[in-house]
Amino acid sequence: MSVVKVSNLTKNFGGIKAVTDVSLEIGKGEIIGLIGPNGAGKTTFFNLLTGIYLPTSGEIEFNLNEKVSSKDFKPYKMTQYGVARTFQNIRLFNKMTVLDNCLIGFHNGLNYGVASSLFRLPSYFKGESETHEKALKLLERFDLLDKKDTLAQNLPYGDQRRLEIVRALAADPKLLLLDEPAAGMNPKETADLMDLIKWIREQFDLTIILIEHDMSLVMNICERICVFDYGHLIASGVPEEIQHNARVIKAYLGEEAN
Question: Mean pLDDT in the chain?
């Protein structure tokens, strides 16, 4: 079943064509890798998927928590649609604890309103208690429970990356977008991340799209790889096909394959 359908998607910034006429479909449970040289349009494509940018033309259709088209996207509702993401540059609340960063991710699932919060009604305390318990369980699954009272800025780099993923998962997404999750990681941390992404897909029943420059990670965990170059989707296929694709080799090396 297709959970994401992109049709003739184009995004222009003045005279600059950042994404041009991209079409693809993503099935439920896939791990898809987006690769390409710097400036190829990968992050712009992510920003279109999350409603940060609206398409110049073309359409994105999600069939996740509800069926919705980019024509009706509201950026503040993306998690309600079933979409969550992390960023290339980690965007945690550095002066807040690990636990508080995680709790923020649950905001869409709170089952009490403003009045309950203001007047401290029983529904408020019940909702807060249930959310707190869920956050602790989620942190435990990612081996962060013992650091729940640590400020996010004091975590090691690898733990900060994991916490950002935890916060995204707290929103209970169906589609998880990871923007260069291995950036800045050493080989051991990258290997651990590969195992973590596979585990997340199985445990949380997710579809995952990731942007990544670490080819060992991409080739080892992605069932399908999409290659961007100058805003165009120039190739899509299984890792072995991509490795031997002449257009991909030319995009990366600047020369024709032998």
Answer: 93
pLDDT tens sequence across 134-178: 999 999 999 999 999 999 999 999 999 999 999 999 999 999 999
Q: Quick check: 30 and 206 in contact, CB under 8 A?
A: no
Is 157 part of any domain?
no
Count up the domains in the chain and report the number: 1
Residue written as token pair 């962060």: 144
The verdict on residue 122 lying in a domain is no
Burial class (CB in 10 A: 0-12, 13-18, 19+), 7: middle
Give residue-wise pLDDT tens across range 170-200: 999 999 999 999 998 899 989 999 999 999 9
CATH number for position 229: 3.40.50.300
Q: Residue 17 is part of which domain span? A: 2-82+172-253
pLDDT at 257: 47
Is residue 178 within a helix (H) or strand (E), and if so which, with residue range? strand 175-179
pLDDT reported for residue 116: 81
The reported pTM is 0.91
Amino acid at 118: L
Six token digits for residue 7: 């049709």
